[in-house]
Amino acid sequence: MSGRNNNKLPRNLPQLQNLIKRDPPAYTEEFLQQYRHYQSNVEIFKLQPDKPSKELAELVIFLAQVGHCYPEHLVYFPQQLKELLSYNHSVLDADLRMTFCKALILLRNKNLINPTSLLELFFELLRCRDKLLRKTLYTHIVTDIKNINAKHKNNKVNRTLQSFMYTMLRDSNPTAAKISLDVMIELYRRNIWNDAKTVNVITTACFSKVTKILVAGLKFFLGKDEDEKRESGSESEDEGPTARDLMVRYATGKKTTKHKKKLEKAMKVLKKHKKKKKPEVFNFSAIHLIHDPQDFAEKLLKQLETSKERFEVKMMLMDLISRLVGIHELFLFNFYPFVQRFMQPHQREVTKILLFAAQASHQLVPPEIIQSVLMTIANNFVTDKNSGEVMTVGMNAIKEITARCPLAMTEDLLQDLALYKSHKNKNVMMSARTLIHLFRSLNPQMLQKKFRGKPTEASSEARIHEYGELDAKDYIPGAEILEVENKEGGGGEHEEDGWQSASLSEDDDDDEDGEWIDVHHSSDEEQQEVVEKIKSMPVEEQKAKAAAVSTSRVLTQEDFQKIRLAQIAKELNSAPGKAAKRKNIEIDSDEEHRGELLSLRDIEHMHKKPKSDKETRLATAMAGKTDRKEFVKRKTKMNPFASSTNKEKKKQKNFMMMRYSHNVRTKNKRSFREKQLALRDALLKKRKRLVK
Questions:
Q1: Does residue 303 come out as left (phi exceeding 0), alpha (psi in the -120 to 50 range) or beta?
Q2: Cα–Cα separations (whole angstroms), residue 553 to 322, 482, 493, 495, 546
Q3: First to last CA, the chain
């Protein structure tokens, strides 16, 4: 039996492969026999490389499988395979070419080939007209580079491959260039090649003549980084004052309506501050890694002005330029007149164009340039001849632009827009009110007196900085409250001693459940006294005290929490010398949160849900209807193909044919008594059926 199996070994390659892996020295002769057989097949193959050869394919896979068992005999085998592929890949049979590639991948997985030369060969093979091969090579390239950098960054290999990729992006074959770009983007998204060199190589794709490569490069810079979004969403919001702190603070004193309203307003201000405090979620860190964003944006604008691509590609170019200008605060003055040409209500995707104008606005743009954009939007959108939705979109765009570049708003334009707060359309009215609310915090002096609302300490300090002015503080705003509070409550002791005494007082409280309430209540009245004293101090003295506190001590988390509470109180407390009660316009606090990038919802936001059209209402009604088959009368026919009865036919006849028949002419309406008798008989009949 064993003799027969041994005789079959030269022909049964899978069995020989299995035996070699178990005991390589025992089957060296058989292996060398197959290796010589392979070499003779290669010589035959070189004479006609375009001819398929199943035997050669089996031998190549066999040698790749047992290559790690006889490394000294197969020293030149990988190099020979690479040369065969490199010289003949365009004429090779598709199956044989795929077999060669799989054999090389197998050898690479066993670490028998240098990765650099193999990956360069695979990039060249991307030019082949074989979709399955390209997909296989793409998967291997990404996986192999990932494994190379698994334990630590292999900078030597990475630099070589990145330089080679730079040449591949300029390849004459668009398919190979596109897959090379996809490889780089995928490696960046997997945090393998997330350095500046990769990003700057990808920037060259944004100037490609091939539309597919251009769009892929633009999508890379415009895409969103989901990992960063998830991380920012999972971050805790425990820092700073909580709702419980405010509840405890306002729990003391009389339970009056005024006290209750003050607590509600404090909760709204706290919610607004928490939204402001959330970390910025950038659409992609790639935009921040570009070496020369000014030059990149100028080239993109030049390409946009002369581009003959379809409208969607032009929109992507405009979006990327606006993000570059907004994030890096670039000077690209020709971009604003270009965008203004598309600012018409009937323009396709006009809300996105308004969004791009808002994204490209920042404080370093000269106000005169942004003023022309604002006037274009006001003249084309915010007029009574337009519908309410168009006016709302225009007002929202003006609000977002002025929030980023407040100097662009003129007093006359602001007062004209503020008058729309009494417009009959609710969306327009609310948009005007949000604009008024914005300038109450930016610069209340620009508004008419009746629109300024209740003056608070925060609004009295608000002012718009001059063009190019940098508001750099050498102190922590609100820190002036700490020193006085420590002297009052701590008796001159160090901050840490105060902490120890507070914790001791809690421990000595007979393990009661609500000891934290006692601690907070003990300092509420003292804190109010401190706030009142600070109010009476001049502004310059407050700043000097805050600077002294900021430089003389290390602030703890409790100190920062007290500072934030004091800053929140500034937005609640009326300004000194002003009436404490005044009509206030309530605005949704969602409007206050602005990140580095805007969303389309900021421009298209409607406070009132638009009325649905007939098709939408009909679709909603049909979706709400249930399947009523169980309530339908079942057909009593035994045979579904049988003809209908005379009674059923009579029901389906045309009335004009039946109106003169005897049955119709003699038919009278039943009297009330006849209906009573019929109902009685029906009920009796039903009762009899139930009894049975």
A1: alpha
A2: 43, 10, 13, 10, 11
A3: 83
Per-residue H/E/C for 425-493: CHHHHHHHHHHHHHHHHHCHHHCCHHHCCCCEHHHHHCCCCCCCCCCCCCCCCCCHHHHHHHHHHHCCC
Q: What whole-number distance in Å separates Cα of residue 337 and Cα of residue 341?
A: 7
Q: Which two tokens stand for residue 351?
A: 């809300």
Quickly state the pLDDT bin for 10 (edges 50, 70, 90). low
Using alpha carbons, select from 326, 330, 352 the residue that is nearest to residue 339: 352
Residues 6 or more apart whose Cβ sits within 8 Å of residue 65: 17, 21, 106
Cβ–Cβ under 8 Å, residues 82 and 104: yes
What predicted TM-score, i.e. pTM, was given to this entire model? 0.69
- Residue 78 tokens read as 């990988």
Q: How far is CA 234 from CA 238, 239, 599, in A?
A: 12, 14, 21
Q: Give 596 or 96, the one with higher predicted confidence.
A: 96
The SS3 assignment for 265 reads helix
Tell me the chain's radius of gyration from C-alpha atoms.
Answer: 40
634: left (phi over 0), alpha (psi -120 to 50) or beta: beta
Angle at alpha carbon of residue 52, lines to 47 and 58, rounded to 5°:
105
Q: Which residues contact 299 (CB under 8 A, 6 or more apart)?
A: 207
Q: CA-to-CA distance for 359 and 453, rounded, in angstroms?
A: 29
Do 429 and 422 meet the contact criterion of CB atoms below 8 Å apart? yes
pLDDT band (50, 70, 90) for residue 251:
low
pLDDT exceeds cutoff 70 at 457:
no
Q: Taking 70 as the threshold, does the pLDDT of residue 27 lie above it?
A: yes
Beta pairing partners, 574:
456
CA-CA-CA-CA torsion sign (15, 18, 23, 28)? positive
> CA–CA separation, 375 vs 350, rounded Å?
16
CA atoms within 13 A on the CB side of 393: 22
Assign 3-class secondary structure to 52-84. CCHHHHHHHHHHHHCCCCCCCCCCCHHHHHHHH
